[in-house]
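ESCALATION

Customer reports they have been waiting on this structure for their group meeting. Please prioritize. Original submission:
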Amino acid sequence: MKIIPLKQTQGLIINEKESQRRGFITGAFNYYYEFSVRNKKYSNPSYDESYKIGDTVLVEYNESFPFMNRIKNQK
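Update from on-call: job pushed to the front of the queue and completed.
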């Protein structure tokens, strides 16, 4: 079994939202985080409503496929 090499970098919570389940009723949403690898930007939902725009997060990503990423210590 081959272990996938993970890298880490700093990310930033940005002003882009994703509605949570039933968000159309409750108004609940999550902000996205954004980071760059080799001058290309990537973003994904934070899945944590406690983040605010401008917060920094530690992002771990697949070295070969940076679009596969998450905020470190999130499941």
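Sent to customer with the following note: The first strand starts at residue 6 and ends at 19.
Escalation resolved.
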